[in-house]
Amino acid sequence: MARGLPKQKPITGVKQVIVVASGKGGVGKSTTAVNLALGLTAVNPSKSVGVLDADVHGPSIPKLMNLKGNPELTDSTKRRAVCLLSMSMGFLVDDAAPIVWRGLMVMSAIEKLLRQVNWGSLDYLVVDMPPGTGDVQLSISQNIPVAGAVIVSTPQDIALLDARRGAEMFKKVNVPVLGLVQNMSVFQCPNCHHQTHIFGSDGARRLAETLGVHFLGDIPLHLNIREMSDRGQPVVVSSPDSPEAEAYKKVAAAV
Ligand code: ADP
């Protein structure tokens, strides 16, 4: 475990930080992070869970959770959607404004989001990382005690290549890889129920085996996931009994 490295300083009030990462953008990392966080509260109702959007250049948590506003970095930054406390650069900048920042500015913003938000008392803080293996991933892994990383990938070779790099990076900085989630694993035609593996089948499962890490589960490619995400109503809360919500809860239970 990365806990206890000399430079690492815990986030006040937060018991476990779980980072959700991917090699590539667009594989469903943020969607998975939000539904995983909600899934954690669904499978452990007594636990409190928060979400931090560390994707400073492309914050999507406000949209995914249908939240707006300009909180200050004080007690009033508590933003609750359903039962989740969340924080994102997206609350602090205009939707259309590009965030044109160099590495150091990004890191300073993330430090603020992590440490100047009153997270209260959280059992889990789920951090939606930017894609790839850059400064942010390294700094978060080195500056705070991270309980583990969940890597999201589609089954496609091009996504798996980068997912592998992500997993290897976490191993290098002593962050335990909790496992791989295979997103968009299969598409079932709503009319004829034929199943198509649009992005290939079982690539992430095989990669998990190769890396010697857990396979946390499959999330189907499903219209409901996309539509509900666009409305800011993640499926775990908007369609809690649907197979797609169950898929996220299964991943949460495996984490
Ligand atoms: P990332 O964070 O990796 O860039 P997002 O979570 O923003 O990816 O997802 C990219 C797009 O794919 C979004 O439009 C999202 O609604 C959609 N999406 C993600 N996962 C699924 C899924 N399992 N089924 C259908 N659409 C999905």
Automatic annotation (TrEMBL):
Keyword Mitochondrion annotated = yes
Q: Where in the cell is it found?
A: Mitochondrion
Q: Name a single GO cellular component.
A: mitochondrial matrix
Q: Which Pfam families match?
A: ParA
Report whether Oxidoreductase shows up as a keyword of the record.
no
Major localization listed first in the record, in broad terms: mitochondrion
Query: Which Gene Ontology molecular function entries are recorded, alphabetically?
Result: 4 iron, 4 sulfur cluster binding; ATP binding; ATP-dependent FeS chaperone activity; metal ion binding
| Cofactor or coenzyme needed | [4Fe-4S] cluster
Q: Which GO terms describe its biological process?
A: iron-sulfur cluster assembly; mitochondrial respiratory chain complex I assembly
Q: Organism's domain of life? A: Eukaryota
Q: Which UniProt keywords apply?
A: 4Fe-4S, ATP-binding, Iron, Iron-sulfur, Metal-binding, Mitochondrion, Nucleotide-binding, Transit peptide
Where would one find coiled-coil regions in this protein?
A: none
InterPro entries for the chain: Mrp-like_CS, Mrp/NBP35_ATP-bd, NUBPL-like, P-loop_NTPase, YlxH/NBP35
Q: What does this protein do?
A: Iron-sulfur cluster transfer protein involved in the assembly of the mitochondrial membrane respiratory chain NADH dehydrogenase (Complex I). May deliver one or more Fe-S clusters to complex I subunits.
Q: Which family does it belong to?
A: Belongs to the Mrp/NBP35 ATP-binding proteins family.
PANTHER family of this UniProt entry? IRON-SULFUR PROTEIN NUBPL (PTHR42961)
Q: What is this protein called?
A: Iron-sulfur cluster transfer protein NUBPL
Q: Which organism is it from?
A: Myripristis murdjan (pinecone soldierfish)
